[in-house]
Amino acid sequence: MSYLSSLLPFPTPSFDAAEFWHYCSKRQLMFQTCGECAVSRHPPVPVCPNCNSKSTTWTEAPHVGKIFSYTVVYNASHEAIKDNLPYNIVLVEFEGLEDLRLVSNVVDAKPADLAIGRNVEVIWEEGPGGQLLPRFKLNRE
Ligand SMILES: [Zn+2]
């Protein structure tokens, strides 16, 4: 069962994001990394915003990240999501990938469980059309 309704529409990935989603389909959380200055970025774009290089490699994120920020949503912005209230939206950051943050959800957290700096661990959930989505669970270690 998915954290949010499987009735939510899934966006069509852009040309640049297709490779990110391809890695996700293999349960790999990979981020674009500049082949010149080695700065990682997300969402994927064709040119490095740090040095303007078009050279791109991919870097696998650690499986554990930290909550950089979060919010809890109490009002449904889409009809398909009204039964999921309240739900959280988190920004997750990863050691070694400075200034890169991933928007996601923590699937096992009540609002009071969320805290900036709390460790979370990536899990994979099947979304609309069978696409695997990177979501997170609380890291209780
Ligand atoms: Zn660069």
What's the structural domain tally? 1
Oligomer: single chain
**SSE-based structural type:** mainly beta
What characteristic shape results from the CA principal axes? globular
Strand elements, count: 8
Major β-sheet, in short? Answer: 5 strands, antiparallel
Radius of gyration: 16 Å
List bound small molecules: zinc ion
Beta-strand fraction estimate: 35-45%
In short:
The protein is mainly beta and 141 residues long. The chain is built from one helix and eight strands; from the N terminus they run αββββββββ.
Keywords, separated by commas or semicolons:
five-stranded antiparallel β-sheet, single chain, three-stranded antiparallel β-sheet, 1 helix, mainly beta, 38% strand, 141 residues, binds zinc ion, 8 strands
Describe this entry's structure for a reader.
This protein is mainly β and 141 residues long. The chain has one domain (18-138). The protein has one helix spanning 18-25; strands at 30-34, 40-41, 56-60, 64-73, 87-94, 97-104, 119-126, 132-138. A five-stranded antiparallel β-sheet has the order 6-5-4-7-8, with helices on one face. Strands 2-1-3 form a three-stranded antiparallel β-sheet, covered by helices on one side. Strand 1 and strand 2 (40-41) form a beta hairpin. The protein is globular. The mean pLDDT is 94. Zinc ion binds at residues 34, 36-37, 39, 48, 50-51, 53.
